[in-house]
Amino acid sequence: MHEILICKMKNKVGVLNRFTGLLTRRNINIESASINSTPDNKAVVAKFKIRIAESHEREHLKRVISKQIDVLSAEWCDPEKNKESDHTLLSDIEKY
To answer: Which domains does the chain have, with CATH numbers?
Structure first.
């Protein structure tokens, strides 16, 4: 099933690389991503559309990501907002 994960991370070199490494080690593919920096450029807000096979992996993944240095927060998007988020991710990609 597709899930939308929203993470707020410090805007530092290597943070996104460590995040994607966590997903790679768990054999989780990022299907789409939207990453934007905050106005003060100290943090980034990243939305990832990922496919998770089992529901218990969802909360485990959130705990593991939240424990990472430089990750400020990690939240799953509401299932009701998934369609909106899909549209937002697609429109962000189409801009480029």
So the answer is: 2-95 (3.30.70.260)
